[in-house]
Amino acid sequence: MERRSTASLMPRMNFVLAAGGTGGHMVPAHALAAELLARGHGVLVITDARGAKIPGLFDKIPVHVLPAGRLGRNPITMFKTLLTVSRGRSEARRIYRNHPPDAVVGFGGYATFPALLAASAARIPSILHEQNAVLGRVNRMLAGRARAIATAFSQIDRLKPGNRDKVVLVGNPVREEIVRVGEMPFPAFDDTSPLKILVTGGSQGATILGRVVPTGLGMLEPSLRRRLQVVQQCRPEDIDTIRQTYADLGIPAEVMTYILDMPEKLADAHLVIARSGASTIAELTAAGRPAILVPFAAATENHQTANAREISNAGGARTIPEADFTPEALARQVEAVAGDGQALANAASRSLSVGRPHAARDLADLVERIGGGLSPLPVGPVLEPRPAVKFAGTGLPA
């Protein structure tokens, strides 16, 4: 069944978006804000001091900073947090009186807590968006108050049975440039062509990728090593060592601390080696790129391993636990991929098949309906299917 936006059916409304101050929460909020503004709605953002310092996201949107506090088990910390949250809730109520919203959307993080508590007290409908495959701590505490819980993955851990009927599968919003990569043909690859590898550790880089990947690629057979072309993002303190390692191995490599042109780099890549943060998974599946994933072992409640579950089960990625991520293990995986170009192309198709490229649109549809006093649509089951090229094989080799 074809879905269509409700934009042309809804009158102008006002929405508050509340997000904690990390990129993982703020970037999806930015994507929704852009979609709602394009539909003619009013948008106001509530965040904490960290979120207000992120440049370029909400330059043209009113931003209010709330005291949010941090949750902890120490009695003194808990008492201070309660006072901070109470003050933040009062400030949010004042914002709502001055700028009455039709709905409040929370993206997780501590700034979401007082904002949605105030919405509940004022009888303003609220929606939660969970970026990870494990419901976050703040979202768990707020789930009972929300009208709907928008999720990025079809399976969500730590969700109480009583809240499951609130779940609407929408995905994680990604940039339109990333979506366009998924609409392009997968780069040609055979046993004589260059193998282009993109290595990214998320917005902060990842030390283990900088330590293991160059060494692992250096263990490949010389005939394969000569075909490699690598783009690697890393931490600033690792950049000189990584560049020198690739130079010593004779592997052409572009090493940087931040990838400004991610859509272009994804479009060129045959294989991605990465962490499995929510934004990374959303971009991989929207672009349709096979991956070797190394979940961050210290991630809260092991949510990166859960994030990798869907794309790995579909055959679009291989997951290597951090404890097992050695140069030898990586070399085995790369050799298996490079030896079967058909499996690599098939894995790209399988990665694309679990992508949700219209997440911003579907989340905006949901928010409009809740703000308009309507029941949520079952967004997940009726997403527009992505075209997939049929290949033999079963995805990335085991």
Describe this protein's structure:
This protein is an alpha/beta fold and 398 residues long. Helices cover 40% and strands 14% of the residues. It folds into two domains: 14-174 and 357-382, Glycogen Phosphorylase B (Rossmann fold); 178-353, Glycogen Phosphorylase B (Rossmann fold). The strands form two sheets. Strands 3-2-1-4-5-6-7 form a seven-stranded parallel beta sheet, with helices on both faces. Strands 10-9-8-11-12-13 form a six-stranded parallel beta sheet, sandwiched between helices. The radius of gyration is 22 Å and the shape is elongated. It starts with 13 loop residues before the first strand and ends in a 27-residue tail after the last helix. Pathway: Cell wall biogenesis; peptidoglycan biosynthesis.
Topology:
Layout: E1 14-18, H1 23-38, E2 42-47, H2 49-52, E3 63-65, H3 75-98, E4 103-106, H4 112-121, E5 126-130, H5 137-142, E6 148-151, E7 167-169, H6 176-182, E8 195-200, H7 207-218, H8 222-225, E9 228-233, H9 239-249, E10 253-256, H10 262-268, E11 271-274, H11 278-287, E12 291-293, H12 303-313, E13 317-319, H13 327-338, H14 341-353, H15 359-371
Parallel strand pairs: 1-2, 1-4, 2-3, 4-5, 5-6, 6-7, 8-9, 8-11, 9-10, 11-12, 12-13
EC number: 2.4.1.227
InterPro entries: GlcNAc_MurG, Glyco_trans_28_C, GlycoTrans_28_N
Organism: Sphingomonas sabuli
